[in-house]
Specification:
- The protein folds into two domains: 127 residues, Thiamin pyrophosphokinase, catalytic domain (Rossmann fold, 3-Layer(aba) Sandwich), CATH 3.40.50; 70 residues, Thiamin pyrophosphokinase, thiamin-binding domain (Jelly Rolls, Sandwich), CATH 2.60.120.
- The chain contains five helices and 15 strands.
- The chain is of the alpha/beta class.
- 22% of the residues lie in helices and 31% in strands.
- It starts with a strand and ends with a strand.
Length: 215
């Protein structure tokens, strides 16, 4: 078991995707406190409109207005690879730059297909970088081994797995799981924490954990 503290103790790199711009205080605070903001293509326009500065703008750059291309020409990274989306390009850039952890914001909303795709991609990223996805309702994080997570009674919790054979046993959940097989994405949803910690035991797979914010 490991104990997870989801609150960074130092400025963290943020990747801002081109979905819905954050409105909740948690992701907004992470943006303000970021040491580096990596923008996915068109997200740069939203970031600048909210008074913040990008550190890198990456993508095919078709969605970056000419004025911003001129203003931020020195931090543009053009990547026209059609086999990856802009979020993956941003993650790849961070990995190549030696960045060990990122918070991904703006990866949900606007289009549901993009939302589902981006959440599932966390499982791909997890072997290369420590990534948490912050939305306007909660956080998504991937674990590849049994874990104990800090929580609080009543916190809403949902579990997802890309691998339909993955089974989970829990302690600290209101509705305990006993070798529950997550063969479909709905199977581990709509639970809640019953204590200040919840433990999830599983093997040979990757578990996506969603934790709802306190408020």
């Amino acid at each position: 078991m490991i104990n997870i503290n989801s609150t960074p103790s130092h400025p963290q790199t943020v990747i801002l995707a081109n979905g819905s711009y954050p409105t909740h205080p948690v992701p907004l605070a992470r943006l303000r406190e970021a040491g580096m903001i990596v923008c996915c293509d068109g997200a740069a326009e939203k970031l600048v409109a909210h008074g913040l500065e990008p550190g890198v703008i990456i993508g095919d750059l078709d969605s970056v207005p000419p004025a911003l291309k001129e203003r931020y020409g020195k931090i543009l990274v053009q990547d026209s690879d059609q086999e990856t989306n802009d979020l993956t390009k941003a993650v790849n850039w961070c990995v190549a730059a030696g960045i060990k952890e990122v918070a991904i914001l703006g990866a949900t909303g606007i289009r549901e297909d993009h939302t589902l795709g981006n959440i599932s991609l966390l499982a791909d990223y997890s072997s290369r970088i420590d990534a948490v996805m912050l939305t306007d309702t909660g956080s998504f994080r991937v674990y590849d081994h049994s874990v104990t997570i800090s929580s609080h009674p009543g916190q809403q919790v949902s579990l997802f797995s890309i691998d339909p054979a993955l089974t989970v046993t829990s302690t600290g959940l209101k509705y305990p799981l006993n070798n529950l097989t997550l063969y479909s994405w709905w199977r581990g949803t709509l639970n809640e924490a019953a204590d200040r910690e919840l433990s999830l035991e599983f093997q040979n797979g990757k578990l996506i954990v969603f934790l709802h914010y306190t408020s």
